[in-house]
Amino acid sequence: MPSNRPSPLIPLGDLARQSRHTGSAYRLCGPDAVQPFALRGRVQTHPMTAGATLHLVDVVDEHAQNVHIQLKPGLRIAWVLRGRADVRYGSQRVLMQPGRGGPTAHAVALAEGESFTRYATPGGRESTVSLCLTPDWLAQAACSSADAVSRLSQQHLQRAHWQTPSALHAVLQGLLGDTGLAPELHALYLQGCFQMLAAHALQGLAGPDAGRGAAAPLRRRPMEQVRELLDSGQADRWSLEAIARHHHMSAATLQRHFQQAFGMGVFAYQRRRRLQQARAALARGEVDVAGAAALAGYRHAANFSTAFRRQFGISPLQARG
């Protein structure tokens, strides 16, 4: 049976340590000296590449209390799944809560550092997933929507909101749940979710003219990691499913994104790479044709010779040094 016990209080030191990824001058203000700041549940800030962050909040406030921080520049996108988030960016106060069709994406551009305040009521609930996409991160993304997003990011306190597709609802809910994954796999999971939400955010911020290709550069970085794994030889005997699991995605997603990134599927890349290794070994005189076939992963020299000729336009014998 589920426990009715309240969630534990979050140590204030944990909140302060996490705040360094978000900004500076972090302050927690309780209602008075008798009732200090008290928050139950979970707050996690996960650093990503180029200073970007994934911020997860699932809390209940004990009192009427405030959080103050000086935020660093960047595009901030938030999805409130339950309860509400009553916040102020500089002079603009914003109340965010779930829409009728599910979580709505709320974005605000901070072209420079800006003060931020979170307001809470006694017993108030907030479950929110948010991203901070820093200027460095946006520069590295270099996607087809970059011009539109860059213009928005330079308009200080400019806001935008849009409906989140139903396919992302489970991703958002999953981030606030218990995955049961080992720490190293959980890290991959968080990175994958961040990339997916960031791609959606760039598409939403750029508007309908951005086109379906806007997220492709965001997918290229994880595909570069897949290629590095393949080039290492570590995955030579792995199945497609094993490679996909290693990078925390489905086999179908891996195939589709790898094809888009490099113009060929995973095993077409593996086959070409191992044929190239076999050709180099033949040229150095290190192996005969049978040995080269084994090096390339072929059990039969005849099949190897056919694939070799198709790839390089010469026979294995002609390639020998």
Report on the architecture of this protein.
By secondary structure, the protein is an alpha+beta fold. Among the domains are: 12-165, Jelly Rolls (Sandwich), CATH 2.60.120.10; 267-319, no CATH class. The chain is built from twelve helices and eleven strands. The longest helix has 24 residues, at 183-206.
Label this structure with key terms:
321 residues, alpha+beta, Jelly Rolls, five-stranded antiparallel sheet, 12 helices, 11 strands, 24% strand, elongated
Q: Uncertain regions: pLDDT < 50 for 5+ in a row?
A: 208-217
Mean pLDDT: 86
Fraction of helical residues = 40-55%
Most strands sheet: 6 strands, antiparallel
In total, the number of strands is 11
Secondary structure category: alpha+beta
| N-C termini distance | 72 Å
Output the CATH class name of the domain at 12-165. Mainly Beta
* Count of discrete alpha- or pi-helical segments spanning 4 or more residues: 12
> For this entry, what is the oligomeric state of its chains?
single chain
The helix-strand sequence is HEEEEEEEEEEHHEHHHHHHHHH
